[in-house]
Amino acid sequence: MTLVTLLISYATVLVIYRLRFSPLADFPGPRLAACTQWYEAYHDLVADGGGMFTFHIQKLHEQYGEPPFLSISFGAEMLSCVRIGPIVRINPWELHIDDPEFYETIYGQSPPLDKLKSFETRFALRYASLSTADSTLHRTRRAALNPFMSARRIQSHEPLIQSKVDQVCDRLNAEYAGKEKELTLNDLFGCLAADVVMEIAFGHSYNLIAMPNFLHPFTLSSANTARTVHIVTHIPWVVTLTESLPESLLMAVSEQLRPIILYRRVRKLMMSQNRRIHSDRNISGNRNGNTPNLEWREEQQDGIFS
C-alpha cells in the first residue's frame, strides 16, 4: 500500500511540475502531451496504424499555433520566450517549431545541442555517429568520418556514381521507356544507393541495380526496418529482446519484428561475404585488383526468409 501511495504521489508531483513549473510550461499544446510522452507514443504505435505522430504535429500547429505566436531564442544557458513564431509543445521536453526561417537560429550559431537519448535506439545502431545523443561524443565519432565526406573525396567518386546512374538510365530506356510497365522509384533508388555505398566502402557491389524490378532482400528489409523505428523509439528494450531470443521464435510471435530480423540476416550474410573477399585479396596480394560484382543466389534468399 505504501508503494502504491508513493507511486501516486510521485506521478502527481511530476504532472504538476510539467504543467506549471517546467521551462516549457507556458508554451501551447495539448495538456496530456505536456504530462506524458504516452500521448506521442499513442499516435506512433496505435492511431491509424501507427507512425502518425509526425503528421499529427501539423494538426497541433493548426489547433494551437494561432496568433499570438511564440518562439524561442538562445540565451547564455537557457531558453527564453519571445513572440515571433509558431510553436507547440509536443511532449514533456520537446517543442516543435513550424517556421523555416528559424532553422538558422537553432542550427546556425547556436551552441552544440544533444539529441534525446531515445534516438540512440531508433535505428538499432547504438554506437553509430548517427545515433549518438551526446554532442561531444558525436563530434568525436563524426571526426573519424570527416575525411571521407570532404568535397574533394566526394568528387573523386563521381566517375563511379555516374557509371551506376548510366546503367540505371540504360535499363530504364530498354525496359520501361514507352511501355506500360510500373516502376517503384523507392526500389530503384534503394538499389542504386546500396550499390554506390558498398562499392565505395568495400570495393565491390552486388549489382543490385540489375535485379528484376529493382527488388532485392537487402533493400526491401532495410526499407521495412525503417518503418519500425517509431516502435523502437518508444519501446527501446525491443532491440535487446530481438538480440537475446531465437529469431524463429520472434518471427512466429510478432510480425512487426520480422523486418528487423530479415534485415539482420541479409546484413550478416553480406558482411560475411565482404570479409571473405578482402581476406582473399590479402592472401593473394592483389589488393588493387578488380573484383567482379557478386551474385545473389536463390538459395541465399531461401535461407534468409525461411
What's the SSE blueprint?
Elements: H1 2-21, H2 31-35, H3 38-45, H4 53-64, E1 71-74, E2 79-82, E3 87-91, E4 94-97, H5 103-107, H6 135-145, H7 151-156, H8 158-175, H9 185-202, H10 217-226, H11 229-234, H12 237-244, H13 247-253, H14 258-284, H15 298-305
Antiparallel strand pairs: 1-2, 3-4
Helix pairs in contact: 8-9, 10-14, 14-15
- Spatial ordering of strands, largest sheet: 1-2
Q: Low-confidence parts lasting 5 or more residues at pLDDT below 50? A: 68-85, 287-306
Mass-distribution shape: globular
Our count of helices gives: 15
Q: What portion of the residues fall into strands of 2 or more residues?
A: 5-15%
Termini separation comes to 50 Å
Instruction: Report Rg.
Output: 24 Å
Helix content: 55-70%
Would you tell me the structural class of the helices and strands? mainly alpha
Number of strands: 4
Residue-averaged pLDDT, rounded? 78
How would a textbook summarize the main sheet?
A: 2 strands, antiparallel
Please trace the helix and strand order, writing H or E for each element: HHHHEEEEHHHHHHHHHHH
